[in-house]
Amino acid sequence: MTASDKPLIVIAIGGNSLIKDAEHMDVVDQYRTAGETAQNIVPLVKAGFRVLVTHGNGPQVGFILLRSELARDTIHQVPLANCVADTQGSIGMQIAQSLRNEFRHEGLEQAVTAIVTQCVVDEKDPSFGQPSKPIGPFMSEEEAREHERDDGWVIGEDAGRGWRRLVPSPAPLEVIELPAIRTLLDSGNLVIAAGGGGVPVIYRDDGELRPRPAVIDKDAASCLLASELGASVFIISTDVDKVALNYGTAAQKEIDRMTAAECREHLAAGHFAAGSMLPKIESALKFLEQGGEEVIITQPHNLQANLRSIYGTHIVP
Ligand code: ADP
Ligand code: MG
Predict the structure, then answer these.
(1) Residue 145 burial by CB count (10 A; 0-12/13-18/19+): exposed, middle or buried?
(2) Residue tagged active-site, from 56, 92, 133, 292
(3) Under CATH, to which class is 3-122+174-316 assigned?
(4) Which ligand is nearest to the CA of 269?
(5) In the chain, where are the structural domains located?
(6) Residue 16: is its pLDDT beyond 90?
């Protein structure tokens, strides 16, 4: 069996499962959680699956923006597209190194490659007209107004916690590095790609690529890659064991298994919160519509080679 005959699993790792809590956010802590996540992925590779890992970057982009902000009188600011690319490099390196070390412990020769990824978005995407995703440090209203005036930022109040910069969150349409990702997977690499949803880029009329200050949802970019690469299973690794109905209320009920049709009903009934569970569910449904066999939403420590037995929520066509 050649590498390309093996079934492919796409595993999207949530930014939250890389940063545990406010006391464990520095780079050493990030290595530790990347190492734990790597330990959970190795059994899948040993069981004969090809694996593509994607990851979030919300907290890490926030750190870069805060540093950039604190140093604004001394050195230039870092554009958002560069922040995304920076975190793809740093988080990708940490996951790649952790995986490599884990494979080595298991006596396995397994190549691992992290790839800086650009995702094409449509400049006419409605989200460009209505930036809604809060990013970076919280500010006073006065500071926020200053950025609005001096830097052209769109600003907004974030859930009563303070003022923040708002950026568009356009839908990803094409992954520029897809052919390279496919070649790497086919030649037996474990690939890490589309970190933070990928760097948002647009095609200019003359065909050239240009970055855009936006943030692509990592669940949406992971779904696009999973579908384009013909993945069998899409695993969304986050900080809850299972998807729930009536989440966060006394009537909360965790779901073990649901069909896409049942999932659509729950979505219509408003069970999945915007900005957190909703993008995962929308991506799950899209993946299944495009031929995917199964989506599993769970915590990283629940992963195991016998996919059917993974403790989590299983969504099937
Ligand atoms: P990630 O970094 O993994 O993308 P998110 O915070 O974006 O994590 O999404 C996971 C969060 O979704 C959970 O911590 C939980 O608070 C929230 N959530 C919203 N609705 C639900 C639901 N119906 N079932 C389970 N979790 C939900
Ligand atoms: Mg999220």
Answers:
(1) middle
(2) 133
(3) alpha beta
(4) 1
(5) 3-122+174-316, 131-167
(6) no
